[in-house]
Amino acid sequence: MAEEPEKQEDAPEDEGSGQEETSQEKVVDLPKPVEMGDELEVAIESVGAKGDGIAKKDGFVIFIPGAQKGETVKIKITELKTSFAIGEKV
Questions:
Q1: What is the three-state SS of the chain?
Q2: Which domains, from first to last, does the chain contain?
């Protein structure tokens, strides 16, 4: 005989608050501090799993292929995504 899993009586039920959707919409609606073609000087703070340098502009992540941690480089934004950008050294 199979046992039924116990229900947690004190767990709040999903009332369709849409909290997940709201959070996702906020990411999409946030203004980005960079635009396509922008040229700026950034400090490489770390290196990502694929070896790209990682810089931030007002908390917005920018990946720069070929950049090393500790470098300060001038870049041009070549791709702009919802939560990050990709730049190339100029």
A1: CCCCCCCCCCCCCCCCCCHHHHHHHHHHHCCCCCCCCCEEEEECCEECCCCCEEEEECCEEEEECCCCCCCEEEEEEEEECCCEEEEEEC
A2: 33-89 (2.40.50.140)
pTM greater than the 0.90 cutoff: no
42/85 Cα distance (integer angstroms): 13
Tokens of 73: 């480089």
- Residue pLDDT, tens place only, 48-60: 999 999 999 999 9
Q: For residue 45, what are the contacts with CB-CB under 8 A and spacing of at least 6?
A: 54, 55, 56, 69
Cβ atoms within 10 Å, residue 26: 9
Q: How far is CA 51 from CA 12, 44, 58, in A?
A: 43, 12, 22
- For range 22-32, the mean pLDDT: 61
